[in-house]
Design brief:
By secondary structure, the chain is mostly helical. The protein folds into two domains: 256 residues, no CATH class; 108 residues, abc type-2 transporter like domain (abc type-2 transporter like fold, 3-Layer(aba) Sandwich), CATH 3.40.1710.10. Helix content is 67%, strand content 5%. It has a four-stranded mixed β-sheet with strand order 2-1-3-4, with helices on both faces. α3 links the parallel β1 and β2. α2 runs parallel beside α10 and α11 packs parallel to α14. The two termini are 32 Å apart.
């Protein structure tokens, strides 16, 4: 153990000696996530502001005075329809426009369904809030108008609405906020991989490329002790990067004046601690996997190529879980990466984290750590590792 700690100390000293690389890694961990989070908050706030101040170009507003009056009472600014409205919507300069059917007045007089046409491009994310608000207001006017028609004919409007839907949302404010704060879970999980990558590359392929690995193998330390020391150093630095990443989110959500988006977010000391506990298996597993993959390369460039697959898998698993939109099976908590992402989301939603789930999420990663370190030690004990081929 003393030899392993000596190797770990040597790797950490070399890492902190390169202050520029170390500071760049820690600064990126502290700032990248919060900056991205601030951009998302501004985007959501901007969409909400655009929806609240909906400006609706209308062609033929004089043909539907009652509809126009209703929209204006709801705070909509009615604008004249530009001649190139369709082209401007396609270009993203306009969000939505409305055309009143030329036969609107005749359709109303005859008691038929009157028609208006909404023109929009739903593929543009920034326009969706305005589109949804315009559609919602038109549906509200249609319900109001339909009720008035029934009253004129001596029929209670409730006859046309035999079903009343009472909505009861069981989501707490923290659970609603977690829909956006998935970014915190994603960045926290991703930091366990990216935090140890520079050190793992330098401690394996870098030393092999600089030919400084042979003197280390010539010491009394065994290959297992050397690998254990390198793993301890990489895991320690990865843990530091994860802590800095989470601290960046904590400070941002606690003290930075982010734009209001209508949802209270809770990410304090309690969530910070729960995140660290959940991510401990990944802080141990990712450095072990990085060391094994990087030890198979002769140069840092080749090692970066080897690690690209691991980087792709870790980054895509949470994204796949988001888009599948299915309830995760109970056994998924035992799968590395997926299980940690599942538990992180539970922590963000304020749900309980049973000790059995935390233990189950650590079993497979622990076994994989032992396997990866054993495989890496075997490579270090092989003289072919020092060969040029």
């Amino acid at each position: 153990m003393n030899r392993a700690l000596t190797v770990a100390r040597k790797e950490l000293v070399e890492t902190f000696r390169d202050r520029r690389t170390m500071l760049m890694t820690l600064a990126t961990a502290a700032l990248a996530g919060p900056i991205f989070l601030a951009l998302i908050f501004n985007m959501i706030a901007g969409q909400g502001e655009r929806a609240r101040t909906l400006a609706l170009p209308v062609d033929g507003a004089e043909r539907a005075p009652a509809l126009i009056a209703f929209l204006e009472r709801e705070g909509v600014r009615i604008l004249p329809m530009p001649a190139d409205a369709v082209e401007r919507i396609r270009a993203g300069d306009l969000d939505v426009a409305m055309v009143v059917d030329p036969a609107f007045a005749q359709q109303v007089d005859e008691g038929r369904t009157a028609k208006v046409r909404l023109i929009f491009d739903r593929s543009r994310d920034r326009a969706r809030a305005s589109i949804d608000q315009a559609e919602s207001l038109l549906r509200a006017f249609a319900r109001q108008w339909g009720g008035q028609r029934l009253l004129v004919r001596g029929i209670a409007p409730s006859v046309a609405s035999p079903l009343e839907v009472v909505v009861e949302d069981l989501a707490t404010p923290q659970q609603a906020g977690a829909i956006v704060l998935f970014l915190v879970a994603y960045y926290g999980l991703f930091a366990t991989l990216m935090g140890g990558m520079p050190l793992a590359l330098d401690a394996t392929a870098g030393e092999r490329e600089r030919q400084s690995l042979e003197p280390l193998l010539a010491t009394p330390a065994t290959a297992a002790e050397i690998v254990a020391g390198k793993w301890l150093a990489v895991a320690a630095f990865a843990g530091l990067v994860v802590a800095v990443t989470l601290a960046g989110f904590w400070l941002t959500l606690s003290f930075v004046p982010l734009p209001a988006v209508g949802i209270p977010f809770l990410f304090g000391a309690r969530e910070f601690g729960r995140f660290l506990v959940i991510l401990l298996p990944m802080i141990a597993l990712m450095p072990a996997a990085l060391l094994y993959l990087a030890s198979r390369a002769r140069t840092i460039k080749e090692a970066q190529t080897n690690l690209s697959l691991l980087l792709f898998v870790v980054s895509m698993i949470p994204v796949a879980q988001i888009f599948l939109q299915r309830r995760e099976p109970d056994w998924l908590v035992a799968v590395p990466v997926s299980g940690q992402y599942l538990l992180l989301n539970r922590a963000l939603r304020g749900e309980a984290l049973p000790f059995a789930d935390l233990l189950l999420s650590a079993i497979v990663p622990t076994a994989l750590v032992a396997l990866a370190l054993w495989a890496t030690a075997r490579r270090f004990s092989n003289e072919a590792l020092l060969a040029s081929r």
